[in-house]
Amino acid sequence: MGDFDNLDKDAEPIEEYSLVPAGWYQTKIADAYVEEKDDNSKILIIKFKIMKGEQTGRQVVIFPWLKKSQKSEDLTARILAAIREACDRTVDTMSDAVNMIDLEMDIKVGIQIGGNKPDEGKYNDKNSIFEFKKLGSQTGGETAQATPSGGDDTPEWKK
Length: 159
Description:
By secondary structure, this protein is an alpha+beta fold. It has one domain: CATH 2.40.50. It has helices at 70-87, 94-98, and strands at residues 23-36, 42-50, 59-62, 65-66, 104-112, 116-117, 121-122, 126-133. The strands form 2 sheets. Strands 1, 2, 3, 4, 5 and 8 form a 6-stranded antiparallel β-sheet that branches. Strands 6-7 form a two-stranded antiparallel ribbon. The two termini are 31 Å apart.
């Protein structure tokens, strides 16, 4: 977690948030923890920090649910299996998951277009992670610039 005691007290508020462009990035897990929600459900929060290239230092976060429904538990298990395969490391339990900090891998970032939120309008667009691979296998090892995964005629959201 961050050090909130040493924050700039005169910092200007963020007016606009920009998405990380779709593509492959070299990353490391900067933080991973479980957060309990008001309804006693739990969510696993994993923050991936981009290590090289134009987007260096930016983060992409995923929030797989735990114990919300069988579908969400299955999705979380598949995400952890993909991370395990990408890093050659055991990630089978929640204690393994929260001890993933500093694991490095390539991730395929995409942009998920917002949908309708009942009674409140539209969700904002957001970054999503679609694949996890061994470090350097998709980014060529040295280059961590966005590596588009589609051709010129591929819509941006599919890259």
